[in-house]
Design a protein that fits this description.
about 325 residues, alpha/beta, Spore Coat Polysaccharide Biosynthesis Protein SpsA, Chain A, nine-stranded mixed β-sheet, 14 helices
Length: about 325
């Protein structure tokens, strides 16, 4: 099957109002442009600063039916203190208004399928920045993320950004957020998202056969090739975390068809990474509540059990993944 791709250039800001899907104040594209211009004052302060303070950063966002979060994601990017920034949304032919919202908010929108790894690689291929920053469509960035990453990347090739959940009020949501926070201190459960473009190109980008663990796979290859990473104090917030155990289990089943492929890349590292007991050592490095530790460990056991169950049930690969398309092609022969 041939991969489809089109490029939609960013439109000018218009006076239409897109309602914030989180229920907060509406998203006014004209207001966002004003916000972007306000933060552009940062440019006038870069004279005499290190060259990286004026470097172009290309932010690549893969999306698929993400209309509930894409506006918040793009608002947080527009609010970044650093300039210049290039924003590329690579959309997998969404059935909703994701691409339209992104284009109206000033992003360059590319339509490309064949899975999330392929979307990221496609966006990186056309990115003009010296640095690449890969952001999911359900992420929200603190205003100083790009600035902090540019400072942290001095003397290195990539930067680790702590990714945390925004809790949704339920006890399960709070525990899932606590688990993500704890694992953000585990060296096997973090991934380079901010990277020099030339380094990304030399590594060949993300593995096209992976939609589970593609970030950590890239991270491991980055380190194995001798590239240098720095940690940072920058934080991203994940908007799309599960709110109950059913969503948590369904999320793991969703990725389970790709488990064996992901494990086969680096079996020992993968088995260490998914070991639920790793949360114990990582918990000691952060301020997560002690009362969360046991439930978080149990969530880890539930996660790996569900993944293995999905493998045993031989669930079909998710729609849009390369493996799903190969299966579809074989079925039509």
């Amino acid at each position: 099957m041939r991969t489809r791709e089109w490029v939609l250039p960013p439109s000018s800001y218009v006076n239409e109002v897109y309602h914030d899907m989180s229920g907060e104040s509406p998203t006014d594209p004209a207001g966002l442009k004003h916000e972007q211009m306000k933060h552009s004052d940062h440019n006038s302060k870069t004279n005499g600063c290190p060259q990286h303070s004026r470097a172009l950063v290309s932010i690549v966002i893969p999306s698929r039916n993400s209309e509930s979060t894409i506006a918040d994601c793009l608002k947080s990017i527009i609010s970044q203190l650093h300039r210049p920034i290039e924003v590329i949304v690579v959309d997998s032919f969404s059935a909703d208004s994701t691409a339209e919202i992104a284009r109206t908010m000033g992003a360059t929108v590319m339509l490309h399928d064949d899975g999330r790894s392929a979307q990221k690689n496609w966006g990186a291929r056309f990115a003009k920045g010296e640095y690449l920053y890969f952001v999911d469509a359900d992420f929200k960035l603190e205003p100083s993320v790009v600035t902090i990453c540019l400072e942290a990347v001095e003397g290195a090739d990539g930067v680790v950004i702590r990714n945390q959940d925004i809790t949704k009020g339920s006890k399960v949501s709070q525990l899932i957020a606590s688990r993500r926070k704890i694992l953000s201190y585990d060296p096997l459960n973090v991934a380079i998202r901010f990277v020099r473009k030339d380094v990304f190109d030399r590594l060949g980008g993300f593995d096209l056969d992976l939609y589970m663990g593609q970030d950590t796979d890239f991270h491991q290859r980055f380190l194995l090739q001798g590239f240098k990473m720095h940690d940072s104090t920058a934080r991203e917030w994940h908007l799309g975390s599960p709110v109950n155990l059913k969503d948590f289990v369904m999320g793991n089943l969703y990725y389970s068809p790709n488990l064996l492929r992901s494990t086969s890349k680096q079996p020992l590292s993968f088995l260490k990474r998914v070991n639920p007991l790793r949360t114990v050592s990582a918990w000691k490095k952060n301020d997560a509540r002690s009362s969360d530790l046991l439930p978080v460990v149990l969530l880890g056991f539930l996660s790996i059990t569900t993944l293995l169950l999905g493998v045993l049930l031989d669930l079909p690969a998710r729609e849009g993944s390369p493996s799903a398309k190969r299966s579809s092609s074989r079925a039509s022969e």
